[in-house]
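Hello again,

I reread your note about wanting to compare the complex against the isolated chains. To keep things tidy I'm splitting this into two emails, and this first one only covers the full assembly. Below are the input lines as submitted, including protein chains and any nucleic acid or small-molecule components. They are followed by the predicted structure of everything together. The single-chain runs will come separately.
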Amino acid sequence: MTMLKQEPHAVLPSATLDEGARQEFMNQVGKHVLNEITPGNKAVYDTLVVPAFKRAHGRAPQDRHEIRKEMVRQPYYQMTSSFQRTIQEMMWNSVDESIQRQLPELIDTAKKIAAGPTKGSLTLAEGFEIPGYVKHNDHHATPGGYSADLMPDDVTAGALYDRGAFIYTQGLFGARMDGIGKAAAMMIRQTRPDLKPKKILEIGCTAGGSTTGLALMFPDAEIHAIDVGAALLRYAHARAESWGVAIHFHQMNAEKMTFADASFDLVCCLASLHETSRSATFNIFKEAFRVLKPGGLFLCSELPPYKGVDPWTQFTRDWDTYNNNEPFWGAVHELDLKDVAAEAGFDVAKYFEGFGPGVAAANQLTSAVEVENKKFIGSTRGGGQAWYAGVSK
Amino acid sequence: MSPGNDTSRRVPTPRPARGVRPQYFADPNMDQMHAMILALAAEVSVLFDRFDAMERILDAKGTLSRADLESWQPDEAAHEERKAKRDALIRRLFRSVHDARAKLENTQPGKG
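Full-complex prediction:
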């Protein structure tokens, strides 16, 4: 495997010799625990948990909740979960330490870029109220999460996400961290080849990685992106501008957007619903319906539903709910987004869900032209496929 | 780049994440021990990498400056060698865990 290199931009944090070494270790030890230590839990389950459960109840555990109740008492599972959680914390700390060292320079660079001239824009809301689900919980155990604004003009949250997620996913989202956006664009070309969006909105853009992917794939569209954290958006804006990508970033709550009705041809919410809440998901669908033009498309990529998946696999996929500060993770897997779409006013006859292009195929794309020229089918393994739910208005 | 004195423009690290941090073991001190052991292992790995960089600079130049060291970047071959060394360290760190996994996987159901 070649060296993991993130594509440089003006506000990408650098690493000293030791910081880089620490980040490399966290990447490698995390991978080792995940691939070579946690699989031992299946033997714990088969040889210890199931026989004991059968003796006590006359049957095997029937759902992930019953499995979890038994597994958290098993020393091997306690150990692997402790390793995973601790490594996750150390990984974020290794990046945060590096960011804090250079934060004054990163802030000054972002300010200078925002002062212009710019192709896109940054609109922060005065006295913005951060939704409870991100205000009191730092998703994936990221210190400060999506919403911390540590000081005037802070960019920490964006830098931490951009750099940390690259290390955490071992470069899965591509050198420009735009794979999720490019994959979504491929899905749109497959499912709505007629759609030529002039105005696009991304809900929950974080550091703007997926948004730059959408911008690359829809070069003629006007692109808007919203999120709740000011420090995320300042970073996302500076990052996009330094690559010359025009994106309009807004600090806005997706549950009550300030865009006019029928403003967009395409609204995307990519891998973000699981970071909100049940009631927020219903509200986001209602708002997406409102801001879409007739004939427009709302596309979500999300964790695939648990239905039809065996209880053991459900249990392993549910680890984040209890161990990685993802309280909505399990619940979103059980939510039927078709019902949510119906309640928001969409016509369910125009709803579709299922697997589609993932980041592995998307990472090979470097321009919109390639999407036009190829017929894409997501590969069937690993990071090859993503799960989508979409509905046209 | 060395840390400046302007502490008003950076926050102290490490910072905790907001939200629930599970306790994994009956004795919470065991959770602490896990965190400390992994932190130590990380620092040992960082030290190994630093020694490795020094040796490579000395091999190439016969002399060493802090500036050379801080700006040093591995090429592809050095990157792979360092990665393999790190992997060996990780395997030594988790030797007893791998033994436990092998034992579990060789156990007949119900006999563990």
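For quick reference: Confidence is low (pLDDT under 50) at residues 373-382 of chain A.

B.
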